Structure formats: structure tokens, C-alpha cells
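Troubleshooting log. The previous run stalled partway through. Resubmitting the same two chains, unchanged.
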Amino acid sequence: MSAINVPVPNLSAIVPEILTTVLACFLLMFDLFVPKDRKRVVGIVALIGCIFVGAVTAKYINEHIVTFSGMFILDPFSVVLKLLFLLCDVVVILISLRYLEIENVSLGEYYALLIFATVGMMIMASANDLIMVYLGLETMALSVYVLAGFTRMTPKAAEAALKYFLMGVFISGIFLYGIALTYGVVGSTGLPDVSQYITLNGFKNPVLGVAVILIAAGLGLEIAMAPFHFWAPDVYEGAPTSVTAFISVAPKVAAIAALFRIYIEAFNLMAAYWQSILWLVAALTMTIGNVTAVLQNNVKRMLAYSSIAHAGYMLMGILAYNKLGLAALAFYFFAYCLMNIGAFGIVIYLRRQNIVGDNLEDFKGLAQVHPMLALVMVVFLLSLTGIPPTVGFVGKFLLFSAAVEAGFYWLVAIAVLNSVISLYYYFKIAKVMYMENPEVDVPLSAGMGLKVAVFTLGLLTFVLGIYPHPLISLAQRSISSFF
Amino acid sequence: MQKLVLGVVFIPLLGAAINGLFCWKTRRKAHWIAVPAIAIPAVLAFMILLRVMKGERFDHVLYWWIALGGLKIPVGFLVDELSAMMMSMVTFIATWIHIYSIGYMDHEDDISYARYFTYLNLFVFFMLILVAANNYLLMFVGWEGVGLCSYLLIGYWYEKISAANAGMKAFITNRIGDFGFTIALFLIYKHLGSLIFHDVFALAHELSVPLATLITLLLFMGATGKSAQIPLYVWLPDAMEGPTPVSSLIHAATMVTAGVYMIARSHALFNVAPFTMEVVAVVGAATAMFAASMALVNNDLKRVLAFSTVSQLGYMFVGVGVGAYAAGIFHLFTHAFFKGLMFLCAGSVMHALHGELDMQKMGGLINKMKITGITFIIGALAIAGVPPLAGFWSKDSILHHAFVSGHKVVWFIGTVTAGMTAFYMFRLIFLTFFGEPRDKHLYEHAHENPPVMTIPLIVLAVGSVLAGLLALAPNGGFEGFINRIMRTAHEMVTHGAEHAGGHESGLALIIISVAVAVMGIFLAYSMYIKRVPDPVTMAQRFRPIYLVLYNRYWVDELYFALFINPTVGISRHVLWKIVDVLIIDGIVNGVAGLCSLIGSVVRRIQTGYIPDYAWLVIIGVVIVCGLKILL
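Second attempt completed without errors. Output:
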């Protein structure tokens, strides 16, 4: 009996992950040497670190490496996602710097946790094996649970964190069960192996069908798709706003990307099967998100429901299962990141003494107090609604075109109708900003980082709406390994 | 040519940007930026029009906006007879309305004065994008943009709750129409592989008739939203909450006609779908009559004009619906002058009477406001269809086309409506400008407005008199000019050809419509000046009808009961109450009340709320699995 032969993995494929992990560990240690009132420095170091890692990661954009016995894949799609996660980090750090001081929780580990979560998401983006997806998911989730309860002295945050954690644990059980079922049938958890098994044996085995559903359910929590969305509004409202901005974008994107890779790579022959499920889920998700958002008066909560709705739109990209759909999905990831974090950034901007900034009343008369800020918020709202000329419009147009191309007429009709509904609640904010008079006169006092972040995001949302070419070519490049 | 087009389209944007970004600098002087930002494009647009008359065309891609695989959408502009005419008309009318606004908005404080001109410039920019775009998606950008500006301008006096709500109502109603428009775009792209006008129209004949019918019906749905037709007209009367020059520019002369323009532009698609054409004509005729009936009894000066606009837009749809695209566009063109004029006159009256709109309080104003009164009468004569004023030519052309194309019922409705139009317009004139002043106090304070407001009135009045005479220009006149772009040889390509065939019937039709108009005017005269029959006793005798008309058929209430209440109801009672309040808020409220944090959370879990979530998840999974396995 020969010794088990372990092939040497190609370590260059995981350089971004290694660097990010090192950065996170470094931040933890560095934090010890920073005095309590200067924790902002840790954030700035994290910021520089992220940019550095991003620069290194960008170099891999044309690589295609499969390593760790086929469990890990580095392809343009994963690289683009990693860049997106780092971009999220940069923006979230920028909007957090001063916000944490106002909230009185300026602690160094905040940034380390953010980076650890990023490592998890990077692994999810590159996972070529169900176990690997699970590993990434848990790495990310554990960090995010803590982040959600970071302002642990406020009951709402603690509750949010605990609720998130309990639901997360529960759902990860479902996810594992799905993996186990797949393993039971196929005898492997590698995505190409599953695909190969289905090619040879067909997919008549109902257990496999259940596994497909359970896997979607497992990832469905982070995606916040119906019926796994119940936790989201609670957690989004309770968590510190900067963390909400983060968890409403990055983990959602990571989970959708993972679901997409699993379905396309492993269950590609069962496309008709999972399409019929996802169709329903997407329609349900966007409708529930939008209709429930209509009545919310808390902006964070409203944006939570809106982000549920956006998850529904994004699922259309997977559903379409064509070149246009995948490119549209990649495009929408960026569009969504810009406009959603931007909108939360404005909520943070309004955080003042005794004002959380997430009430609809806090937006009253913003156009008079700070016309530029109101204008930027309108850009974000237009983009979220999908009104031209904004990046959200281009993204939605691409997604819907892809779905039409794939023949999902009714779903597109539902989606367009949903956009109409969404206008109503997004413009409730605009109406309050432009058509009412300010009530409180506590001046706004945003930090430099927040200002830079919000206005840059606003500018990008607008400019990429008029000239989306750079983003489109990036999206096109990212899907080059699939079709 | 390219420079000219870019100049026309982007100079208004530049104006909006300057006033928007530096409103605290420009303040009172905002119009020194805003007026040239429209006047210069007006000159340029006229130069373009002259070139187009010589036969020049322009279809140029500025850059590729969205290009992904087979999906290629440019930012590009198309200049032909139709768009050149629209650009000239929009910029010309807008220039005078901008000038008028200087006087009208003089009570505003500095910042909002600049804000007003910013929105107005921005509106013109989007309107020009709409008419100059060379593909459907860019047209949609303009389409949404004008809607947005309209929203901002209707709600301009947001201190009034009704104004803010009217803006919202307009925006949302429009979005319902846009729903159809958007779906139509996706269908066009899916089946013709392009959204560029040139490609779409070249391939349009390849569409199957049912598909073309579906697409055009959806496009028409968009048009009913933007152009205030049944069933989506409800927003326009409320839109009168905005400043009057805005009503004049957006809700009479330009934006509301976008639907007509879009259909004329898409004529190649509509020609493939005869059924849609019938629908367009019937909806147009029905709207024309329906809206006119509501205008008969309304006492609000601007609301009467609003219903009149809805009614006149109906005529335009009758025109395009019976295949006489050029006639529809001709009416769009003349209507812009006389309806724009009448709104400005109404604004002038309002300005003089400190915002009073109730006609029952006016009377005898002609003695105080000569220019406003005379120009208003010119506008009313034009809309009533008295020759040789503008409205006569275009309305008559539409009715004539309806008649000869076999739409006898549509023609009849149109003719009756013409009589109603003449009646309510002159009812308005007589109540406002003639007879005894019914409110002495208001009358005492009335005064003619400064030249900055009256000169635009005079200019547009001259336009209202003369614009119709373009019908007599060589080579088929106005309609012949527009018909140069109509691709398919439709039965009514040139006006002249028909006249040769049915000259006698043509003359008879003209005599009938003029007679009807004169009768309408005479009836208004006898009722509101001579008081025979007395309108008050009439209203009492026909009280049920009067109430129905006065309350606008209760359509607003109906919509509220049918659509708004159920949506809010589902959101509030089903999704929100059950899911959120019961489950989620239950936890939130409970937690907030407890001092011991951990204890409370643990307690909450033990009382079983998180398991509720878990159960929901399990049930969801089991249902989906079950369905998939069973089916």
C-alpha cells in the first residue's frame, strides 16, 4: 500500500487570499500598539492594505488556475469578484472611520473582522467544490455576526447579531445537508465531478433534486431571498449603519456568485429544473421586497427590503443562463455596490448627536440644508429605481434584456412592474428632502473619508450610467471562462 | 450639422448645470443664464430646420452607450423632418415661456428662483433628447427625464401639500405607462435585434401581426401615460398645481405631446398593426369627448385648460390612429402655440388677481387687461377652429382624414367635441373677461402685467394666427414636409391627392365643423352673457349629469379604491402586520423594554420567535421540494 500522494498545490493561485489573511492578522496585532483614541489609524492602514491587495489581485485577471486537487479555481470571474469585495472594503472603511467614533465603538478589531470576512468571500468566489463554498461561507459569516453586533451596548444591535447568528447556524445546517446528499449520490463534492456524474447517469435521482434546492436554501440566507429573508430587515436595522452597508452588499454578492458557479458548473444539465425553482423564488423575492418596503418609515429598514428586491433582480442573471445574463450579473454587482453603499453612506452622513439618521424625518429639507448631498442621494435613488441615466438603469436594462433573450417574458414583466412600485418608496425619501422644510438645525459634521466616499460613489453612479463602457468590458472579461 | 445638433441638445444642460451648481451665486440673475441657454438652441434648431428643408438628413452615433455582445445601443441623434420640426418648436416655445417666467416668478425668493430656472432648463434638455434620439433607449432616457422634471416642477411649491402630492401622482401614473413602454422595448430588441430606429423600422415588416400588435399596444400604453389619455389621464388636471408657465410648457406644448411624437416616429411599427391603430383612434376620440365634457362645468381656469389639453391630445391620437401621422403632428404643432398661449394668459390673469383661479369670481377683466384679454380670445378662436386661425387647419385635417378613412363614428365624435370645445372655451372667455365683475375687490386690484409677460403673449398669439397657414405652403404644406419621412406609401401620403378625390365632401366637412364651432361660441354667448338659458337653472334641471361631470365621473375615487387601497392594504395588513409587526417587531419591542440584555434575548428565543423563522424556512424548503418531487 503506497503512501497517499498529496500533490503540491499551486500557491500562486491563492496569493490574494494569503495577502488578505496576513493583512487581517497584522491589523489585529497593530491594533495593540495604537492608543485608544487614535484607532482611526488602524482603519487607514486597513485602507492602504486593501488597495495594495487589490493592486496585486488585479494582476491575476487573465489567469486561469485550478489547484488544491481541483477544489480551488482562480479565473477572471473570481478575480473580478475579489476586486469588488476589496472595493466594498475600501468604501466601507471610508464611511466607517468617523462613524465608529460617533457610535463610541472605535475599536481596531472592526477593521480586522471586515478583512477576515473578505477572506471568506474571496474563498467563496473561487470555490470549485461544495465543501470549499461552505468553508468560505462560514469564515465570512462568523466575522459578519460579530460585526452586526459591534455596537453591543445597544439592545437592537445585540439582538440583530444573535438573530443573525441563530438563523445562520440553522441555515448552514441545511446547506451541509444539501452537500451531504450530493456527496451521497455522486461520491464527490467537486463541482466538475457532479457535472460529470449527471452527464453519465442523468438526473433522475430525486435526492439530487432535493440537494439542488437545499444548496440554494443554504446560500439563500446571505442572498436574503424569499423565504429566507425574514432576518434581513431586523438585522439591517439593528446593526451599525456601516456594517449594514457592508452586509447588504458584499455577502449577498458572494453568495449569489457561489450559487451561480454551483448551478452553472455542477448542475448545468439540470438547468431547466433549477430555472423553474429560481423563477418562482426571484419573482417572490422582488415582489415581497418591494411591496413591504412601501410602508416603511425607517430608511434603513426600507433599504433592507429594497436590497431583498435587488437580490430578486440579480437572480434573473443566473436564471437567464446565457452570456448576456452573466455579464449583466457581473455588471449589476458593481452597480449595486456603488448605489447601495452610497445610499447607506448618506444615512451615516446624517448621523449626528442624538440623531440616528435613519428616520424619514431626518431627511426633511435636506435639499435646503445641504443641496449637494440631497442631489447625490437623488442620484442613488434614481439608480436604485432604475431610472436613466444612472448605472442602476444600465444594469437593470442588461439583466432584463438577458432574461428576455432567455424567454422569461413574464418574469421581466413582474420585474418591471416591481420597478414601478419601488419608485414609490424611493421617492418618498426624495419628496421629503425636496418638498419639506428642515426641522432640526443640528449641523452635519461628516468626516473627510465619508465625504470622499459618498461623493465619489455618487459621481461614479452617474458617470457609469452615461458611459458604462469600462464596467461592461470588465464584466465581459469576467465571464470569459464560462462561455 | 453635428455641431449644431450637439449645441441644440447640450446648451440647455449647460444652463441647468450652471444654475444648479451655483444657485447661490446666480440667484436673481438666473434668467441671464437660463434664457440664452434656450434662445441660442432655438436659433440653432431653426438653422437645422432650414438645412433639413433643403433635403439634408443626419443620423449619427456619438458613442456606443451600452455595447455587450449583440446588444448595441448608441448615444446618437437623428435629425429628419420630424425631429427638426419638433426641436424648433420646443426651443421656440420654451424661449418665450422662459422670458415670461421672469415676470411671473418675480415673487419667489432668490434661491428658489434659480432652482426654478434650473429645472426648466433641465426639462428642455431632456425633451430635446427625447425628440432627437436615434434609438428607443435614448428616447426612453428623455422620456423618463421629462417625467422627473415634471415631477419636480409640479411639486415646486411644495409648501402646498396638494402640489407635492400632485407631483407624486403624475410621476407614478407615468411610470405605469412606462411599464408598457419598457416591455415593448424588450420585445422589440428580442425580435428585431436592435433598438436603433433605422434598423427597427427597416425590419418592422418582418414582425408577425399579433406580435406587432402587442408591441404597439404596449408602446401606446406608454403614450397614454405621458400624453394623458384614458385611462391614465388623471394626473394632468392635478398637475396644474405647478407654476403656470410650467403648465404651459410641459403640460400643454411639449412633454404631453411626446406620446404623439413617439407614435408618429414609430409609424413603421404601427402600420403593421391595424388593430392597434383602431385602438389608438378610438381611445383618442373617446378621450377627446370625455375630457371636453368635464371641461364644460369646471370653474377652475387652469383645470378647464387642462381638460382641454387632454381633449386636444385625443384629437392628435385620432390623427395618428387613422394613419394621418402628419395631420396629428400638425395639430401637435399648432396646439403648442394656442394652448401654450392660453396657459400663459391664464397665468397672466392669475398674476394680476393674486393667484385667484375661480372663474365665478372674475368677469369684466377685458377692461383692465387689454393685451391678455385679446390674446386669450385669439387663442380661444384658434382652438375652436375658426378659420383662418391655426386650430382650424389642423383639426379640420384630422377630422377630414378620419372621415375619408372610413372612421365615421370617430369623425362624428370629433365634430361634436369641436362644438363642445368652442362652447367651454368661450364660456371661459365670457366668464373671465366679460360681463359684470363678480368680485369687486379682486377687480379693483387687477392690472395688466409688465411687457416681459405680455410680449410672449403677443408672439404666441401671432403664432396662433399664422401657424395654420403653413398648411398652404408649397409641396403639400406642413403635412407634406412631415410626410417626407413616412416610409410606407400609405393611402394618404399627400394632402393634395385626397383633396383631388373628395373635394366636395371635403368642403362639406369644413362647413360642418365651422358651423359647429360657431354654434358652440354662440351658445356660450347666449348662456353666459345673455343668460338664456340661465346656466344655474340648467345645472339644477340636469343635476345628475352636472354632478357626474363636476366630479369628473369619480374616476380618481375609483382608481383609489381599485389600485391604491389594495396595494397599501396588502402591504399593511398582510405583509407588514403579519410578518413584520407580529414576528419581527414583536421581538424588537420586547427587547427594548428589558434591562437585562442577554436574559431578554435568551428569553425571547425560548418563547419561540427564532423558531418561527426556522419553521418558515423549513416550510418553504419542504413545500418547494414537495412540489418539485410531486410534479
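Takeaways: The first helix of chain A runs from residue 15 to 32. Chain A touches chain B through 74 residues (CB under 8 Å).
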